[in-house]
Amino acid sequence: MDKFKIGIIISWLSILLNILLFFLKFWAGIVSHSVALVADAWHTLTDSISSVAVLVGIKVSSKPADQEHPFGHGRAELMATIFVGILLALVGANFTYESVIKLRSHEAFEYGNFAIIVTLISIVVKEAMAQYSIYYGKKSNAKSLIADGWHHRSDAFSSIIILGGLFLGHYFWWIDGVLGLVVSLLIFYTTYKILKESLSIFLGEKIDEELKESIQDIGINEFKRDLDPHHFLIHQYGHHAELTFHISLPGAMSLTEAHTIASKYEILVKQVHNIGVTIHIDSIDKYDNVKY
């Protein structure tokens, strides 16, 4: 099945399951007077919103290149990933606020079997959704799907913590508020990981060393000479990347021969790594030996 179709199916499934879990958790939280469980319910609902963002990002990023966007629409998915991260940060801030209020008011909570059952269901369902999203996200190189998977996993972690709190609530009045703060910290950590990676790619990163070495090896193995590949610059556009770098050739070489070598090198790199390549030729007689 096409990787974009897989992403769309997973996103729709995520939206439907999260809405169902939200109502179950919210009801259980109201019945047991648990701010942590109610907060966890809203966390689950934000998963649906983030899945909608992922769904839109995947659909837009799958559009082919056009005159206005010659490098495609791949960064739409990256923008969706950043949106998920920001949404998580807002959820974490709200949980922190609600937990502090509950601690200050010395408000306890009571749990029943319904709250335990709902929490157990949430743990199993959310971890299963995380596994699928992260697995297919890595398989299709869909960062927004991976981010959504971590969003699901953070919900599963928070439910595990809340499950422990349900059993300790009778002994410690403050346990619900403290667990709400712990859930907030988990969400903030997940937010940090998602935004750090996504923003780094969005701002631009240096070429991966393994990719750089592979490209250098292609030149040596194919042309039987050191073309001195240097000054590598790579631009990521979601599922598409554009690479530029320089090679050094003798100044006395004809323009036709130099162009033939560069063009062949571009084709070879594209075949191996599936990235767009543009090569600039330096005259070896004027090259100043500065490496990048």
UniProtKB/TrEMBL annotation:
Residue stretches making up the Cation efflux protein cytoplasmic domain = 208-283
Q: Which domain of life is it from?
A: Bacteria
Q: Which residues form the Cation efflux protein transmembrane domain?
A: 12-203
Q: Where are the bilayer-spanning segments?
A: 6-28, 78-96, 108-125, 171-192
Cite a single GO MF annotation. monoatomic cation transmembrane transporter activity
Q: How does it sit in the membrane?
A: Multi-pass membrane protein
Q: Where in the cell is it found?
A: Membrane
Q: Which GO terms describe its cellular component?
A: membrane
- Mainly resides where? membrane
- Could you tell me the keywords of this UniProt record? Membrane, Transmembrane, Transmembrane helix, Transport
Q: Which SUPFAM superfamilies match?
A: Cation efflux protein cytoplasmic domain-like, Cation efflux protein transmembrane domain-like
Q: Which family is this sequence assigned to?
A: Belongs to the cation diffusion facilitator (CDF) transporter (TC 2.A.4) family.
Protein name as annotated:
Cation diffusion facilitator family transporter
Q: Which organism is it from?
A: Plebeiibacterium marinum
